[in-house]
């Protein structure tokens, strides 16, 4: 079966939405290394997949590509680390729509810098996203203040952070948006989708091994695969999403990037069903506005 850029983008969207939910499920709010545990599992999964891709190419791959592609890999991995750290403080139903605005950022950059087309409707959509982000920050601040009043005698760390927790997915959106734009440039001029995918996955695998060494040897923390069940599921879906994403971006970046941002819809739906997250009517309205 031949995939179009649209079906590839939808497949990536579905996989990433599910990965977000599993990573949130596997995040322990009291474990300050939980974001590293997620990175480790993604890196290991991607390392395995990189070997599969190399075999498909009969190992015809220039290892120097890892260095050439590093700026893109660095932005992607850093943005993910920041976003995963924020999982300790934000509902996936709130954080995911904010983080997913990276697609709009990438679309704007491709439109402005690479002279790719964008309609008036797409500009209107960006305005809705910007307004939605502001409203979501205001609502999160109000919710934090309300919780603080309820628990004035014992305010937990999550409530102390309050609306500032939104900085995690916002930073993710900016870094990932710029990374997606650079990815578009690389795929347009320098790399094939296979070379880009392998370069990113090998870099992520290296980061995973360094993180694993840091947790076990430096910080002397336990790491058992039996305790990483949800991160394993998330790593599988994240890797599958990356595979579909590269080919979708290579085919039609200015439309595919914003389209793949709707992975937040998948995350919100499953976050509500599977994680039993509860949102106010105002938060639902704002999230709907962002996803529209």
TrEMBL record:
Coiled-coil ranges per UniProt: none
UniProt keyword terms in alphabetical order: Membrane, Transmembrane, Transmembrane helix
GO cellular component, one term: membrane
Ranges where the EamA domain occurs: 5-136, 201-291
Membrane-traversing stretches: 6-23, 35-54, 66-82, 121-140, 161-182, 197-218, 230-248, 254-275
Protein family (similarity comment): Belongs to the EamA transporter family.
Record protein name field: DMT family transporter
Originating species: Anaerosalibacter bizertensis
Organism phylogeny: Bacteria, Bacillati, Bacillota, Tissierellia, Tissierellales
């Amino acid at each position: 079966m031949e995939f179009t850029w649209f079906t590839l983008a939808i497949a990536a969207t579905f996989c990433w939405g599910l990965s977000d939910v599993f990573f949130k499920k596997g995040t322990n709010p009291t474990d300050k290394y939980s974001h590293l545990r997620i990175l480790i599992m993604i890196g290991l999964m991607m390392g395995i997949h990189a070997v599969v891709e190399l075999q498909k190419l009969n190992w015809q791959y220039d290892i120097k590509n890892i260095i050439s592609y590093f700026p893109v890999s660095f932005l992607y991995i850093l943005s993910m680390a920041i976003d995963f750290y924020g999982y300790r403080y934000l509902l996936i139903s709130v954080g995911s729509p904010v983080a997913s605005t990276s697609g709009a950022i990438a679309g704007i950059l491709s439109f402005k810098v690479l002279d790719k087309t964008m309609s008036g409707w797409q500009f209107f959509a960006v305005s809705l996203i910007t307004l939605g982000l502001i409203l979501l920050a205001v609502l999160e601040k109000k919710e934090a203040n309300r919780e603080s009043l309820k628990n004035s005698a014992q305010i937990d760390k999550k409530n102390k952070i309050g609306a500032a927790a939104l900085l995690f997915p916002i930073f993710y959106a900016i870094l990932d948006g710029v990374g997606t734009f650079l990815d578009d440039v690389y795929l347009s001029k320098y790399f094939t989708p296979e070379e880009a995918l392998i370069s990113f996955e090998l870099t992520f695998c290296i980061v995973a091994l360094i993180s694993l060494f840091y947790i076990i040897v430096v910080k002397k923390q336990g790491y058992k695969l039996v305790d990483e069940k949800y991160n394993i599921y998330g790593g599988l879906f994240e890797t599958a999403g990356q595979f579909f994403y590269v080919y979708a971006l290579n085919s039609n970046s200015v439309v595919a990037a914003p389209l793949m941002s709707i992975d937040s819809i998948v995350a919100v739906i499953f976050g509500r069903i599977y994680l039993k997250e509860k949102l106010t009517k105002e938060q639902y309205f704002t999230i709907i506005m962002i996803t529209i």
